[in-house]
Write a structure and sequence with these properties.
alpha+beta, four-stranded antiparallel β-sheet, 48% helix, globular
C-alpha cells in the first residue's frame, strides 16, 4: 500500500474513492543527496511527505554556520509551514541528506484537496500538533539538559538518526561542536 495512505489511515478512515482522490493531488519527486529543496528567501510552495531517505531543515546563523533545527525520515512531513501558509519568503533551508523520494503537494492543490475531502483537515491538524509539540520538547531539552544528556537522549529515542546523519549535522542539531560529539562518543566527557 502507498506509504502516505498508510500514514493517513493511522489517524482517519479513508474509503477507496477517498484514497484515490488523495493520491490524485500529489506528485512524486526525487532529490539527489545534498540537493537543496528549499532555500532561504524562496517561498515554500510545497509540503513533502518523505517516502524514502533523510532530509534536514536548517538555518545559517549569524556567524554563517549551519544550524540544523529538524530532521525528517520516511513517513514524516517537511516544509516551512509559515512560508507555505502565508506565502512569504522562507528563513530556512531544506536539504536532502541522502537521495530521497517524496510525495509533494503544492499550496493550490492542498487547499483544493481540503475542500474536496474536509476530513483531511483533522489529519493535517494532528500532524501539525504533533510536530509543534516535538519542537516545544526539543526547546525544553536545549535549555534543561546538558550536551551529553541531549546526545544520550537522542541516541536512545532516535538511534536511526545517529547512524544515518553525518556527525557535524547531528552535533549542530544538538547544539554543540562535532569535536565535542567525538569526545562524548569516546567517553571522554
Amino acid at each position: 500500500m502507498n506509504p502516505l495512505l498508510q500514514h493517513i489511515r493511522k489517524f482517519i478512515a479513508l474509503d477507496n474513492w477517498e484514497a484515490e482522490t488523495v493520491l490524485s493531488y500529489f506528485e512524486t519527486e526525487s532529490f539527489r543527496k545534498k540537493q537543496i529543496m528549499l532555500e532561504e528567501g524562496q517561498i515554500c510552495n510545497k509540503q513533502y511527505f518523505i517516502t524514502k531517505g533523510c532530509v534536514r531543515f536548517y538555518i545559517n546563523n549569524r556567524k554563517g554556520v549551519e544550524q540544523t533545527l529538524q530532521f525528517g525520515i520516511e513517513n514524516w512531513w517537511i516544509a516551512d509551514y509559515l512560508s507555505f501558509q502565508e506565502q512569504i519568503p522562507s528563513h530556512f533551508y531544506i536539504q536532502a541528506i541522502e537521495p530521497i523520494e517524496t510525495l509533494s503537494i503544492d499550496r493550490k492543490s492542498f487547499e483544493a484537496l481540503l475542500l474536496e475531502l474536509p476530513k483531511l483537515e483533522r489529519y493535517f491538524r494532528l500532524i501539525i500538533q504533533k510536530s509543534f509539540g516535538t519542537s516545544q520538547t526539543r526547546i525544553k531539552y536545549l535549555f534543561t539538559m546538558s550536551a551529553e544528556e541531549r546526545y544520550h537522549h537522542m541516541n536512545s529515542r532516535f538511534p536511526e538518526f545517529i547512524q544515518r546523519v553525518p556527525q557535524y549535522m547531528l552535533a549542530s542539531y544538538l547544539d554543540f561542536s562535532p569535536e565535542f560529539l567525538s569526545k562524548i562518543r569516546a567517553g571522554k566527557v
